[in-house]
Write a structure and sequence with these properties.
Residues 61-116 form a coiled coil. Keywords: Coiled coil. With 121 residues, the protein is mainly α. It has one domain (11-120). Helices cover 94% and strands 0% of the residues. It has 2 helices and no strands. The protein has helices at 5-10, 13-120. The longest helix is centred in the middle third of the chain and has 108 residues, at 13-120. The protein is rod-shaped.
Length: 121
């Protein structure tokens, strides 16, 4: 029995070409899926690495903020101590100036007494 004409065309060179093209397309599709899968995994790895680095930087940032706060407190304490010492220095300088003035007055008075004593001799 002979096959009908349509069925014979189904197994023709054109059909074989279509089947090969379909096979090639399927193979290409599978390679694209595999490539996209691998690229997606690489992207996920990169995102995880970025997240881990961000967390590390966040911890370091928190530590640096703590250090900055501590150093600012120390700076304020030192500044206050410096102001207190400068005030004490100014007071001491004023006292020294007052004492020097009193000393000069006493020296002058002593010279006067010596002169009077010499005159009385």
């Amino acid at each position: 029995m002979t096959q009908p004409k349509q069925l014979q065309n189904w197994t023709s060179d054109e059909t074989i070409y279509i089947l090969r093209t379909l096979t090639d397309l399927r193979s290409h599709y599978n390679s694209l899926i595999d490539t996209n899968y691998k690229e997606s995994l690489k992207l996920l790895d990169m995102l995880n690495a970025a997240r881990a680095k961000w967390l590390d930087e966040s911890v370091e940032n928190t530590q640096l903020k703590t250090t900055i706060d501590r150093l600012e407190r120390q700076n304020n304490e030192i500044t206050n101590e410096l102001r207190r010492l400068n005030d004490a220095l100014r007071q001491a300088e004023t006292q020294i100036a007052t004492l020097l003035s009193a000393k000069r007055g006493l020296e002058s008075e002593l010279i006067e007494y010596k002169n009077r004593f010499d005159q009385l001799k």
